[in-house]
Amino acid sequence: MLDKLTYAADFARAEAMLAGSRLPATGTGFDVHRLVPGKPLWLCGVEVAHEIGLSGHSDADVAIHALVDALLGALAEGDIGSHFPPSDPRWKGASSDRFLAFARDRVSARGGTITHVDLTIICEAPKIGPHRDAMRERLAELLAIPVTRVSVKATTTEQLGYTGRKEGIAAQAVATVLLPQL
Ligand code: MG
Questions:
Q1: Distance of CA 9 to CAs 15, 25, 109, 151, Å?
Q2: CB half-sphere exposure, 121, CA atoms < 13 A
Q3: What is the mean pLDDT of the chain?
Q4: Distance from residue 96's CA to the centre of ligand 1 (Å)
Q5: pTM here?
Q6: Residue 121 in 3-state DSSP?
Q7: Kind of pairing, strands 150-155 and 113-122?
Q8: What spacing in Å lies between the alpha carbon of 60 and ligand 1's midpoint?
């Protein structure tokens, strides 16, 4: 019996109890945006200093977009484009933070918990390593989960293809959530 939640261990125990009546669901997401001059570069909710940035209807945060699709995928609730159509002027220049907050809130509304997210950013430049911790912290803050449950990785395509030619940045994500059994 848990009468109050004070310490991290209390929350872990409460989650374990709740997990008994819930099942894990996994979603994946993938996105690509074009690199262009004269745009800021937003990745994982962090502005990265770089000579070129990503173009798109919103702030073009390709990593967050992939993550939103992963969360929506775990819920089987469509994709980012179905909830935030690029044709809608409300999302022009919008911070992708709000898309991620929406997906987080959908998980809560379904009685779910975000167990873990894992992102891979695919690009030749910039180097992601120096920004990894800031990105993990920002995503953890937006998702309201501990940073230990947020993974950010990066890879190149060995100078092959559109990411290799630095024409764009791709991102893929996996999200695991616990959902009540129906
Ligand atoms: Mg996108």
A1: 10, 24, 25, 22
A2: 27
A3: 93
A4: 9
A5: 0.89
A6: strand
A7: parallel
A8: 6
Cα-to-centroid distance, 59 and ligand 1 (Å):
9
Task: Report CA(65)–ligand 1 centroid distance (Å).
Answer: 5
pLDDT digits (tens, 9 = 90+) for 26-75: 999 999 999 999 999 999 999 999 999 999 989 999 999 999 999 999 99
CA of 31 to the centre of ligand 1 (A): 5
Dist. CA 144 → ligand 1 center (Å): 22
Residue that has been written with the tokens 């993938």 in this structure: 30
Residue 70: count of CB within 10 angstroms of its CB? 24
Residue type, 173: A
CA of 87 to the centre of ligand 1 (A): 13
State in Å: Cα 84 to ligand 1 middle.
Answer: 10
CA of 63 to the centre of ligand 1 (A): 8
User: How buried is residue 69: exposed, middle or buried, by Cβ count under 10 Å (0-12/13-18/19+)?
Assistant: buried
4 falls in which pLDDT band (50, 70, 90)?
A: confident
pLDDT, one tens digit per residue, over 109-136 is 999 999 999 999 999 999 999 999 999 9
Question: Which sequence spans correspond to the domains of the chain?
Answer: 8-180
Look up the CATH number of domain 8-180. 3.30.1330.50
